[in-house]
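Risk register update: the risk of archive-format incompatibility is retired. Evidence:
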Amino acid sequence: MSDELSEKRCVPCRGGVPALGEEEAGRLISRVPGWALEEGAKGIRREFRFRNFAEAMRFALQVGELAETEGHHPDLSLGWGYCTVRFRTHSIKGLHENDFIMAAKVGRLL
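Archived output:
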């Protein structure tokens, strides 16, 4: 299911559109395995686990390169053996389809 999303491209969102509602966000989150809604369905997150810091760092760099390509950037938390990726469209203070597209693309990096 996430393959559909991972084939899409992010479209620039400069605001002026409503954030997804909780019901729509709930439908989309089911299409990106391992991801969870947070902040009352205003963001999504996933923690990825690795054997060491170097692997986590390499993954974070891959996520960064993908984000630059798509023009849609996550918040990353990185430490020994983990990288947490969070998406939220800041210009609309909530979720947009772009966040789920990126979640699907990030999931395919593994």
